[in-house]
Amino acid sequence: MNVELTNEQLQLQSAAARVAANIAAADRSDGSNVDRFWDQLVDIGVPALRLPALCDKVASGVETAIVIEQFGKRVCPVPVLGQAVLATELLDAAEARQELALVADGSLRLAPVLSPNLSGFGSWDSPGVAFDTAGATHLLSTATSDGWRSLARVPSGGTLIGLDRTRELRTAPGHADSDVTLIGKPISPRRWQRVEAVALIAAAADLVGVMQGALDDAVQHVRECRQSSMLGTSTANEYSLADSLFRVEGARSCLWHAAWAIDHLAAEEAFLAAMTAKAYASEAGRDVVETAMEITAEQAISGKRASHLRVRRMLLDRRLFGDESIQYESIATTRLACDEPA
């Protein structure tokens, strides 16, 4: 199937790439850059990409995936995934219009709470991990009652030291119902399934970006070393890179289908496509990034070089909302349930 981006999508991709390049080149240790980075996201409309009432286009998972990939490619220390995508999807599902408008214009910063093992969204009545919290003033958490989800703003906890140096994590202690501020309306099970699908797609998009960045660096390294390397070694590297390219494009194909499906297919079908995209990207991400590390001979993991930042980010992305082993099991369960006679 031939899939091509529209001119408008290509322009968005180019704009996101420029902003991501500027952020990647900035001083990561300068804490004052956090708000400036966020302002650049707001300027190109990232928090409003899936909010048709607040942007000039229909809500689109494809545009969202395109933008996330560009920031993942350059391992940018900016909370695109948590605050610009997941938080806004939660608010939109709860029809929290006032909060959505504030997030879209950059004046409200909310980060989502995940479960302790990062496999799903957290609940405010039990401890969790707040994800992508750089610059956030409050956290968003949920609770379930009779299959419906309620959304609430909860206080933030202390900072956590995580493997991924490009994202900030905080503790999210459990709260009693009286200590939280409810937001919007209860979220139906069907709408919640789309929220979870968007979460899987977002994590997969970041993985695709990380893979593409690693592949680009490895190709450049082989190109520069070709003259001084033995023919056999160079040929072996080229075969490895060709396989990595195949894996990256396969992951991107699954991602774009899932991103399209979130807006055009039934919730169950969209969720199945999202699980498939996350499974493929999680498995390919590990192999592609590790291959790039081997080719560039940067196998010691530190916290400074871009290749090492990619390894750390890839490992966290794999964990987010479940790696391939969890997704494959869920896909099998879903498929078998569909095949059972009525």
Automatic annotation (TrEMBL):
InterPro entries: AcylCo_DH-like_C (IPR036250), AcylCo_DH/oxidase_C (IPR009075), AcylCoA_DH/ox_N_sf (IPR037069), AcylCoA_DH/oxidase_NM_dom_sf (IPR009100). Keywords: FAD, Flavoprotein, Oxidoreductase. Residues 202-333 form the Acyl-CoA dehydrogenase/oxidase C-terminal domain. One of its GO terms (molecular function) is acyl-CoA dehydrogenase activity. Its cofactor is FAD. It holds the Pfam family Acyl-CoA_dh_1. Gene3D superfamilies: Acyl-CoA dehydrogenase/oxidase, N-terminal domain, Butyryl-CoA Dehydrogenase, subunit A, domain 3. Belongs to the acyl-CoA dehydrogenase family. This is Acyl-CoA dehydrogenase. It comes from Mycobacterium paraffinicum. The lineage of its organism: Bacteria, Bacillati, Actinomycetota, Actinomycetes, Mycobacteriales.
